[in-house]
């Protein structure tokens, strides 16, 4: 039997009775391990999204940044300390190949929340690494991923992961599905993984505030954003000085793109295919503007769903499948064209 998988545009949330007096009364907070998040939003651990400035700003806005790990351990440590030096905090990232070196250095500097981030997280290596972290330091909070199935999420939970990062192939600069033919449409992936009793991070494919509401309604506790934040002032990397009268651009790239692999590994191994792309995005001002619009949408979406908080949204959400005509109807189409 072949199952059907839904992505964000395939479903809408059905509005229901609402007794919340104002959108202001919606509570968006989540207990996230050592952190209390006021907004259910993380910035992605990509080298063109979360460095020091993004991490600080995300924390100040009520979400959290996940610092990228695509640098030497000393530079990672310096970034982490810089974030902490302004009384802000962030999550830090680990891969599985370096062993415990980066983990110990960041732990000694005060980090308590670690994101073990591997493209295909449903593997023995990731499971073993998560177990090792939890055994080495009992007071750490470990996010593990990425997975896109119930069995994958259940495996990581059984290895000790406190939170599960969900998403194989939905990312805005990701080409995994094209290169490998693998993945699960993201709303179905979130729904399946959310059957596991752990915090769920919906990572990838969120392009509008409405997508974020759907991700939360499908069972996520927080959303992780890459593309929606790309081009913001706080993202790392040079912006390209424009010719007079032209817009400014910033680089945004998948961490499995050829360019990123060349920068961090020296070269792309010839047995590997790039599973991401590098693009230029128009500079678009402070991240606060994006987050304000996002949060306004989430608050409103939650009142449409009659849900005062995220736990209620998980209970109350009713999705409906839309046809291609429904997708068209959902877009602005007031230009009078037939
Ligand atoms: P976005 O919010 O841009 O749609 O998705 C961001 C997510 O895409 C990241 O958090 C990460 O999980 C994923 N991602 C980042 N770079 C790559 C890549 O090069 N290839 C793949 N397959 N996924 C990527």
Structure description:
The protein has 338 residues and is α/β, with parallel strands linked by helices. The protein is 34% helix and 17% strand. The protein has twelve helices and 15 strands. The strands form four sheets. Strands 5-4-11-10-9-8-7-6 form an eight-stranded parallel β-sheet. Strands 12-13-14 form a three-stranded antiparallel β-sheet. The longest helix is centred in the last third of the chain and has 18 residues, at 287-304. The radius of gyration is 20 Å and the shape is globular. Guanosine-5'-monophosphate (5GP) is lined by residues 44, 46, 119, 146, 167, 169, 171-174, 176, 203-206, 224-227, 254-257, 275-276.
Helical proportion, percent range: 25-40%
Rough shape? globular
Strand order of the largest sheet: 5-4-11-10-9-8-7-6
Low-confidence spans:
none
What's the quick description here?
The protein is α/β, with parallel strands linked by helices and 338 residues long.
